[in-house]
Design a protein that fits this description.
single chain; 413 residues; mainly alpha; Growth Hormone, Chain: A; 2 domains; 18 helices
């Protein structure tokens, strides 16, 4: 058992540093796009949205390939390759931002950098499969909680660091993020043990690795299909944070960038606490199905609370209460992981990453569209909280689908 600990610790550090790097560049990426694009704010904003979509598209297509590949060659090489790709992306963006290389300029390089990042962004699926490899089935859901903890801490700290570093130029945050990721890659090369046993290896099949076939494979059983659909719509609902939080907080509450940044930091810290500590205590006691049910019900109430909030105190009370909903995601992942073989963990996690990437493509325009309509003159009533109410309805549907899928058969407690 002791040999497993360094692997789990490294996976947490890997995911944390990965999200920290993403968080560091969040405040300055729009400015870099505007600088390189050379157009006005409107056209630059559109192009920025296009780059986000390109990243998600590349991840959607490549995550199943990397996940399935990890079932054959092991998790370690895929994780290290993904880290190297992320570092290359950051260094390329740093070079673009510095202006030190006159030949390295223009929209094409921006697109290339984002495609590289998306194509090698399969470390999430490989890291999740790694956790499944080294965790007994009854502890997987609790250990999956470190994913949310890493995300929460990374997004709580990263943007603040990026905002400070951005004062020294657009290229500095990208350079720092690149160095962090490359050091993590070297550390992994020296320290990280392989988790996927040779007897559990599965030959790579392109028919299973392409995203369409990978998602079709989710129909193998009612439980896997139902839980996968629940996972997808859960992520669509959760994208309300990335899509409209800033818009809603500025419009309804009059928050400035500092207040918005603080609120997101609190969200990240609470998420890290719940998924990294509280959830790991609660999940073994509640069982995966009950923890999922409880988390989803709290999330639905949380979304309604945000939609109704008219002041800062209410928002923070809802953030604290709603953070307990973080136990739902690792519980769902635990149920899905339990019900596939050890030789398919890379494939299933790649498919899940594709679903979350697809949610990242579809959810932002959907949720911002709902927001824009309900604050426009076309709306019969001004309702800036409408995207949160929409997400609450989705979560109620997710709860019904997930509970129906796990009512009979399967392995989930």
């Amino acid at each position: 058992m002791q040999s497993r600990r360094p692997g789990l610790g490294f996976i947490f550090i890997t995911l944390f540093l990965d999200i920290l790097g993403i968080g560091i560049v969040v405040p300055v990426l729009p400015g870099l796009v505007e600088q390189v694009h050379g157009g006005g704010k409107e056209s630059s904003a559109f192009f920025y949205g296009l780059l986000v979509a390109l990243y998600c598209f590349a991840q959607f297509f490549c995550a199943p390939i990397l996940g399935t590949l990890s079932d054959q060659v092991g998790r370690r090489p895929v994780i290290l390759w993904s880290l190297f790709g992320a570092g290359l992306d950051y260094f390329l963006l740093a070079a673009l931002g510095s202006g030190a290389f006159p030949w390295l300029n223009g929209i094409g390089w921006l697109i290339a950098a984002r495609l590289i990042a998306g194509a090698t962004g399969g470390n999430f699926s490989a890291c999740t499969a790694y956790i499944a490899d080294i965790s007994p089935p009854e502890k997987r859901a609790a250990n999956f909680g470190i994913i949310g903890a890493a995300f929460g801490l990374g997004f709580a700290i990263g943007p603040a660091i990026g905002g400070i570093l951005g004062k020294f130029g657009y290229h500095v945050p990208f350079l720092v993020a690149g160095v962090i990721v490359m050091l993590n890659c070297v550390y992994g090369l020296l320290i990280l043990p392989e988790s996927h046993k040779p007897e559990n290896r599965r030959k790579f099949q392109l028919s299973r690795a392409n995203p369409v076939a990978s998602l079709k494979g989710l129909r193998r059983s009612p439980l896997i299909f139902g839980m996968s659909m629940s996972f997808f719509f859960y992520h669509v609902a959760h994208y309300v944070y990335q899509s409209v939080w800033v818009l809603f907080a500025g419009y309804r509450l009059g928050w400035d960038t500092l207040e918005i940044g603080v609120s997101l930091a609190v969200v990240g810290i609470m998420s890290a606490f719940v998924q990294g500590f509280l959830g790991r205590k609660m999940l073994p006691k509640l069982g995966e199905r009950l923890a999922m049910k409880l988390g989803l019900i709290i999330m639905a109430l949380e979304m309604v609370g945000f939609g109704l909030a008219h002041n800062s105190l209410t928002m923070y009370l809802v953030i604290i209460f709603g953070s307990v909903s973080g136990i739902a995601s690792p519980a769902m992942q635990g149920i899905i992981s339990r019900n596939v073989g050890d030789d398919e963990q890379g494939w299933i996690q790649g498919a899940m990453t594709s679903l979350s990437s697809l949610a990242g493509i579809l959810a932002p325009p959907l949720l911002t569209g709902v927001y824009a309509f309900f604050i426009s003159e076309k709306s019969p009533v001004e309702l800036p909280g409408a995207p949160f109410f929409f997400s609450a309805i989705l979560v109620v549907a997710v709860t019904g689908i997930a509970l129906a899928s796990t009512r009979r058969g399967g392995n989930f407690d």
